Structures are given as structure tokens and as C-alpha cells.
What we know:
Layout: E1 3-7, H1 13-22, E2 26-30, H2 34-43, E3 46-47, H3 51-54, E4 60-63, H4 68-77, H5 80-83, E5 89-92, H6 98-110, E6 114-117, E7 120-121, H7 123-129, E8 132-138, H8 140-153, E9 154-161, H9 165-193, H10 198-206, H11 213-217, H12 240-256, H13 262-276
Parallel strand pairs: 1-2, 1-4, 2-3, 4-5, 5-6, 8-9
Antiparallel strand pairs: 6-8, 7-8
Helix pairs in contact: 1-7, 4-6, 9-12, 9-13, 12-13
The structure holds nicotinamide-adenine-dinucleotide.
Amino acid sequence: MKRVGFIGLGNMGFPMAANLLKAGLEIDAYDISLERLEAAKKLGMDVKDSPNNVVQNIDALITMLPNDSAVKGIFIDGDLLQNLDKKVLIIESSTISPNLAKMVAHKAHLNELSFLDAPVSGGVKGAELGVLTFIVGGRRSDLEKASYLFNIMGENTFYAGDSGSGQIAKLCNNMLLAIHMSGTAEVLAMGVNNGLNPETLSEIMKNSSGGNWSLEKYNPYPGVMKGTPASDNYDGGFLNSLMLKDLRLADELSELSKSDIPMGKLVKELYEDLNEKGLGDLDFSSIQKNYLK
Ligand code: NAD
């Protein structure tokens, strides 16, 4: 593995590509944002002016795009797959609908290419530190080819099953994340409204049966945990707009599979409200704002 194409250099993609570069790989990079391309160039990536120029002479292609429409534009509407060399491994790491992931995998396989859906967990910090979790769907033999790259960008890889399964597992995870973040935010506010200190209450619940990832790693209450978006005006991190996208995808998945998700539907409404209030660009832990007095 020598040269990797990377499309989508946003909050997640940029540090992921930077880690590959640091590990000695050559990176051909593309993003629609000129600002992102400028930053990539400064770091030593080989910047290209179109997706089709990224895919020349590469061993693997990684995409880290915001949503279905961007992924569809690159893989289904464009002719990129036809332009790739047969040996190239494609790793699609955006969070998108399982059906689109399956559709792209099918088109890639028709073109004799290796394709994995490999959404990630771990956030921007995880991407920067190279400790992401990759949740993978596709052929096991392709996963073996990809493990060298996964090990540079992350520390855990889970195989979920056939194409699309990585996305299904990721949507289940993010729906649960939204539910426990939202629940954590409302109980912290209730405790504070009743005279408790949010740090003390967090410590008590973290070590009791209410303990969860939001309390342990990503406390939503301002000032309780250093280095979290909540202690930095909810700046950056995983945006409310992206969480809403994932909750809508999870809702679609529940309809298609006739699964009851009352909590999932409720939390989707809460994130719809946040986005309607114009808070789409804040971190998803800003759901706490709903309950601050
Ligand atoms: P982002 O909006 O910061 O980055 C997306 C990048 O893609 C931007 O730089 C944008 O300019 C670029 N882009 C958009 N359309 C493009 C196109 N057609 N061609 C090339 N570049 C294009 O988003 P992000 O936070 O990096 O998230 C990327 C994906 O990872 C999303 O699907 C998100 O749900 C998922 N994710 C994000 C996090 C997180 O904490 N931010 C965590 C896990 C998974």
C-alpha cells in the first residue's frame, strides 16, 4: 500500500488523511472546499481538482462525505468507479443509508472492485488521535486488505456482515447515542434545578446504574468536563445537523424493517427542534441548551 486517494477532508476526513500521511503514505486529496484543499496542500498532500483525478495510480480510495447525496454524486451519478484500476480497494466511511451503501457496493462489484462500507465511531478527537472504531460491511476478504489502513486511522475494527451491515450497526449505535445524550442532559438539568452541583451529580451517576458514554466521555453540561464541546460553547465536534441526518436514516430503517422505535422517534423530534432553532452547526451535546435556565 503506497498511495491512497481521499475524498472529503472535513472535520473527520482531514485528520484521518493526515494520519495516513504521517504514517508514510502518499495522499491524493479532493474536497469541494478550496480552503480544505489549501490546508491539505500545506500538510503535504497531493491536491487534485476533481474526484476523477484522485483515482489515478492509487492503491485504495477512502471517502468521508457528509451525506447520501454527496456519496451518490461521487459513486452513482459520476463515472469514477469505471475509471478505477481493478486492484483498488474502496473504503466508504461516511454515515449513509444502508441501501445506498448496498447500491454502491453492487456497482463496485460489477466493476470488479473491492468495496467496504466502513462508517466510524469516535468523533473528531478519535480521528485526530487515530483511535477510531471502524464498523464494517462487505466481503471479509476485502476487510483483510483494508486492515493496514484501519490500523493507522483507528484502534478497533468490527465486522458487521454483508454490504450495508456496517451502516445498519452505525445507525443503531447513533440512535442509542442520541437517546442517552438527551436523557443525560435532562437529568443533569433536573438535578441542578434541585440544588445539586452538576459535577457531583455526574460523578454519582457515572459510578451508578445511570452510567453511560455521554457521562463518561462527553458530558453535555457546560464546565463539567474539560476538552468537551460543552466546555467550549458547543463548538465543533459532531454537529446537530449530522445527528439529525443519522436519526432520519435510522427512522427510515425502522420503517423499512417494521421495527418499533418510540424513543428513536422522540429523540429525532428533539433534534429536529434544535436544528429548526438554527443550532445545526453546534455539537450534538448542545441538546443540553433545551434545559438550561
Ligand atoms: P464535514 O461536513 O466536516 O465534512 C464533509 C466534507 O466533505 C467537507 O469538507 C465538504 O466540503 C466535503 N464535501 C461535501 N461534498 C463533497 C463532494 N461532493 N466532493 C468532495 N467533497 C465534498 O463532516 P464530518 O464531520 O467530517 O463527517 C463526515 C461523515 O462522517 C458524515 O457522514 C458524518 O455523519 C460521519 N461522522 C462524523 C463524526 C463527527 O464527530 N463529526 C463522527 C462519526 C461519523
